[in-house]
Amino acid sequence: MNIKFLSVLSALVLPLSANAALPYVGLYQTIDDETNTPKSIVALYEYSDGDDTNIAGRIVALYGADGKISETLTNPVRVAENVKGAPKMVGLDIIWNMEWDADDKEYSDGKIMDPKSGKIYSSIMWQDAPDKLNVRGKIGPFGRTQHWNVLDASTLPTELQSVDTSAWKPVIIK
């Protein structure tokens, strides 16, 4: 009887856990490596890729030289000149195909683009502390790790508090 109960319980619980939100989905503040000042806000969001659920990252805001948000999805200005088609930076997907590895508690096998150079690198993401996300772009064993700040959406302008990513799919520009 216990085996039957466990089988029924598994059948009910496993589908729920498969649809659970992936870790690290949310808003992050990127920091400029050279000036150590806020550079952008990136929304990490879930999307379906066949039978898999992955995450991608889209720039949703840029900071101005004064350290305040100067561009959002409703008013993009700066252009990613070295990216094919010269799209606006705000609205640009810079991370895609990130797959969750529950054993290592990290995302891997994805790509990240430097919007200034247009170069694309392999990427991994993990968290050592609850308020920081480590994002590494790499070629083989060589690379660079940035530390992104976790943002509380309620502290942001209304437009960014209500960003609905549920229908987003990454637009990959190579």
Describe the protein in words:
With 174 residues, the protein is mainly β. The chain has one domain (24-161): Lipocalin, CATH 2.40.128.520. The protein is built from two helices and nine strands. It has helices at 2-18, 158-161, and strands spanning 26-31, 38-49, 52-63, 69-72, 93-101, 106-113, 120-129, 132-139, 142-150. The protein has an eight-stranded antiparallel barrel with strand order 1-2-3-5-6-7-8-9.
In short:
This protein is mainly beta.
Strand content: 35-45%
Instruction: Based on Cα principal axes, name the global outline.
Output: globular
Structural class: mainly beta
Oligomer: single chain
Structural domain count:
1
The poorly predicted ranges are 1-19
Q: For the residues shown, what is the average pLDDT?
A: 87
Q: Which strand order does the major sheet show?
A: 1-2-3-5-6-7-8-9
Q: N-to-C SSE series? A: HEEEEEEEEEH
- The CATH topology is Lipocalin
Number of strands: 9
CATH architectural grouping: Beta Barrel
Name of the CATH first level = Mainly Beta
Rg, Å, rounded: 18 Å
Query: Number of helical runs?
Result: 2
How would you characterize the largest beta sheet?
8 strands, antiparallel, barrel
Compute the separation of the termini in Å. 56 Å
- The percent range for helix content is 10-25%
